[in-house]
Amino acid sequence: MANESRPCPCDIGDRFDYGGRGQEVQVEHIKAYVCKPSARTDKAVIVIHDIFGWQLSNTRYIADMLTTNGYIAICPDFFVGQEAWKPSNDWGTFNEWLKTRNAGKIDKEVDVVLKYLRNQCGAKKIGVIGFCWGGAAVQHLMLKNPHLNTGVSLYGVIRHFDDKSNLLHPTFFIFGEKDDIIPLEQVTLLEQKLKQNCKVDYEVKIYPGQTHGFVHRKREDINPQDKPYIEEGRKDMINWLNKYL
Predict the structure, then answer these.
(1) What is the 3-state secondary structure (H, E, C) of the chain?
(2) Catalytic pick among 77, 212, 226, 236
(3) Which of 132, 169, 226, 236 is labelled catalytic?
(4) What CATH number has the domain spanning 23-244?
(5) How does pLDDT run across 73-89, given as a tens digit for each residue?
(6) What is the pLDDT of residue 1?
(7) How far is CA 133 from the centre of its chain?
(8) Confidence at 174, pLDDT banded by 50, 70, 90
(9) Residues 48-56: what's their mean pLDDT?
């Protein structure tokens, strides 16, 4: 289980030195990073950040990767102006900090973003991906929001929604075998509940030897042993979106 003095291992990993190819925009009361492909498309993906917020270069790198694969990508500030977590913060305050940033209470912001994508970007098919805190948010949206088409939850914190499994849309769950905050017993239980209750397509995949955050918080060039799994996770994510959008 997670170390109680450090209840989230989100400081594991690297911060990419990356600037981004998109732009920041104001969408009603939300700031967002948006990147669009050169060719017109009616397919879009909402990218939900981890605890380090919408400006993390790693998350923008993934958003731009989606754009190179033909998608409009938008990463909104789902903390809505509240400060993102900093690695230098006192982990003893993390649970209090998290109480004001509930991954299951982003519906108002998602509705605003969906409206923007439809009206301003011409999107007709919209998916969502998310990392850690954002992965939990994806699971919430796949259980509740009828206006999305599919989702990919990357090491989403299962315990926030472990009693719910009747998904509305096809959902892909990515987990690392060595994730300290998401024990494999929780992943097994999720699979069992999905098998019992889920009537849409889903997949749960565990990547050998990988820790929390591996798809977007590990650099291939300094983690050579992890490179195949980082690339596989990203490819699987894109393939799932391609299938359902």
Answers:
(1) CCCCCCCCCCCCCCCCCCCCCCEEEEECCEEEEEECCCCCCCEEEEEECCCCCCCCHHHHHHHHHHHHCCCEEEEECCCCCCCCCCCCCCHHHHHHHHHCCCCCCCHHHHHHHHHHHHHHHCCCEEEEEEECHHHHHHHHHHHHCCCCCEEEEECCCHHHCCCCCCCCCCEEEEEECCCCCCCHHHHHHHHHHHHHHCCCCEEEEEECCCCCCHHHHCCHHHCCCCHHHHHHHHHHHHHHHHHHC
(2) 212
(3) 132
(4) 3.40.50.1820
(5) 999 999 999 999 988 89
(6) 32
(7) 7
(8) very high
(9) 95
> Of the candidates 167, 124, 123, which has an alpha carbon nearest to the alpha carbon of residue 145?
167
- Amino acid letter, residue 143: L
Rounded CA gap, 70 and 105, in Å?
Answer: 29
Q: Where are the domains of the chain?
A: 23-244
pLDDT at 18 over 90: no
Which is nearest to 174 in space by CA: 151, 141, 200?
A: 151
CA distances from 219 to 35, 70, 93, 199, 224 (A): 22, 23, 29, 36, 9
Answer yes or no: is pLDDT of 103 > 50: yes
160 is catalytic: no
Average pLDDT over residues 216-230: 83
**Measured between alpha carbons, how far is 40 from 17 in angstroms, rounded to an integer?**
29
* Portion of the chain with pLDDT greater than 70, in percent: 90
Out of 50, 64, 77, 179, which one is annotated catalytic?
179
Model's pTM, two decimal places?
0.93
pLDDT at 154: 97
CB of 184 closer than 8 Å to CB of 176: no
